[in-house]
Write a structure and sequence with these properties.
The strands form 6 sheets. An 8-stranded mixed beta sheet has the order 13-12-11-10-14-19-23-24, sandwiched between helices. The protein has a 7-stranded parallel beta sheet with strand order 4-3-2-1-5-7-9. Strand 2, helix 3 and strand 3 form a beta-alpha-beta unit. About 30% of the residues lie in helices and about 20% in strands. The radius of gyration is 22 Å and the shape is globular. The chain folds into 2 domains: about 180 residues, Glutaconate Coenzyme A-transferase (3-Layer(aba) Sandwich), CATH 3.40.1080.10; about 240 residues, 3-Layer(aba) Sandwich (Glutaconate Coenzyme A-transferase), CATH 3.40.1080.20. With about 450 residues, the protein is α/β, with parallel strands linked by helices.
Length: about 450
């Protein structure tokens, strides 16, 4: 460790490396450079036109945003809107950058600039190796293309290094190393499953075979599916997912998550991000040897995903049209989240032998006046995002059943979607289909 003592500096000293016009990367998800964020925010008025990128932040605040609401020095950009970022976007303080996560490493390699990478890492071992904690992301690609690399050591992170070092970096790769006291890890909690969530989950559960490789999104339905699997007769399930969460911990504790049937990473749970409760983070630390945390190039490759049989991808949506096109991320022009890795896993499931990709949503949503609107619509409204084209959607699940769309004509697709819409809206949907699809 003595060889790297000269690299240890205060967060304030590391922040002094940031210059006017720099692009600074904070990372994604539960991994966040907390000390660097505070130190950079303190440079308000000393620098100008500093652009900061992050995404899916689950902390209650980002200091560069809070310190500079006039955006005198800093502008914050998000790859995927989280809860805090959504609030700040309404105030004009977060700019959204659309991307498919599997494309992000190539963006950094060939199309966009990164000047300073603030990389959150775990405590180093005796040889100077650190783990990437809760977020592998595309960190290696990012910092290998950066002018200045800052490692921020978070004493709370799990310390595992991944399969064959897949989650590992070395202190020698940093220009500066920052350490200090951090807040407890940010946790992501989810509401209890509703009766509608449970009905949707029951419909999906019928489609899952023994030995399936599960890619569970986050939210009520994926968690309900996991809990139902835990109480079912299903066995020998696997994990290959963008975000590993408490849902997989439940499957593991029920003896269902063996990864025994996986063709790639047999015996290991494969993931890119980790997000959940403190109990879940403790579980990651305890069972670190059973994970393959990989970067986006590895985990989000549809071709690698599809090397496994029976890939079951389960994600949520906002609305779908009668032909299956999906809006997964916006309400009109208001950005709610992002597409993230949904397309990556939909395509991976499509390519997998026996694979099925599910978009799960309630058939309706309540308006402010208490009335209901259908989440299955004749067409995606103007201003809303078409996140996934109709040609990529395989299965749609609501509380009324599962529509399986591959191989169907336009009219047949519309009828399959009408069959799982809320009964109160089927008449008007049928009238539109009859007039437009013959």
């Amino acid at each position: 460790m003595a060889d790297f003592k000269s690299k240890y500096v205060t967060a304030e000293a590391a922040a002094a490396a940031i210059q006017d016009g720099d692009w600074v990367d904070y990372g994604f998800g539960g991994g966040f450079p907390e000390l660097m964020d505070k130190a950079i925010a303190a440079r308000k008025g000393q620098v100008k036109d500093v652009k900061i990128r992050g995404g899916l932040v689950i902390r209650p605040r980002i200091e560069v945003i809070e310190a500079d609401p006039e955006q005198e020095s800093f502008t914050y950009y998000s790859w995927h809107i989280g809860d805090y970022e959504r609030k700040k976007q309404k105030e004009g303080l977060v700019k959204f950058i659309p991307t498919i996560l599997r494309s992000l490493p190539d963006l950094y390699r060939h199309h966009i600039r990164v000047d300073v990478a603030c990389v959150p890492v775990s405590k180093p071992d005796a040889d100077g190796y650190c783990g990437l904690g809760l977020s592998n992301f595309a960190w290696r690609t990012i910092f290998e293309n950066a002018r200045t690399v800052i490692f921020e050591i978070n004493e709370h992170y799990p310390t595992f290094h991944g399969f064959e070092g897949s989650h590992r970096v070395h202190l020698s790769e940093a220009d500066y190393i920052v350490e200090g006291e951090h807040e407890p890890l940010p946790v992501r909690n989810y509401r209890d499953a509703s009766e509608t969530d449970l009905a949707i989950a029951r419909n999906v559960l019928k489609e899952i075979p023994d030995g399936a490789m599960l890619s569970l999104g986050v939210g009520g339905v994926p968690f309900a599916v996991a809990n139902m699997i835990a109480e079912s007769d299903l066995k020998d399930l696997g994990c290959w997912t963008g975000t590993i969460s408490d849902a997989y911990m439940a499957l593991h504790r029920a003896g269902k998550l063996t990864n025994r049937m996986k063709s790639v990473d047999t015996g290991l749970s494969t993931w890119n991000l980790a997000m959940g409760s403190q109990e879940f983070y403790d579980w990651l630390q305890e069972y670190g040897d059973s994970f393959h945390p990989g970067d986006l190039d590895y985990v989000h490759s549809p071709w690698r995903i599809a090397e496994n049989k029976n890939v079951i991808s389960i994600n949520g949506g906002v609305q779908l049209d009668l032909l299956g096109a999906e809006n997964a991320e916006s309400a009109g022009t208001r950005q709610l989240s992002g597409i993230g890795g949904q397309l990556d896993f939909l395509e991976g499931a499509y390519r997998s032998e026996g694979g099925k990709g599910f978009i799960c949503l309630a058939s309706t949503h309540a308006n402010k006046d208490g009335s209901l609107s259908s989440n299955i619509v004749p067409f995606i409204p103007t201003g809303s995002t078409t996140s996934a084209p109709r040609t990529m959607i395989q299965c749609v699940a609501t509380e009324y059943g599962v529509a399986k769309l591959p191989g169907l004509s336009l009219r047949e697709r519309a009828q399959a979607m009408i069959n799982i819409a809320h009964p109160d809206f089927r008449k008007e949907l049928t009238e539109y289909a009859d007039a437009n699809f013959r």
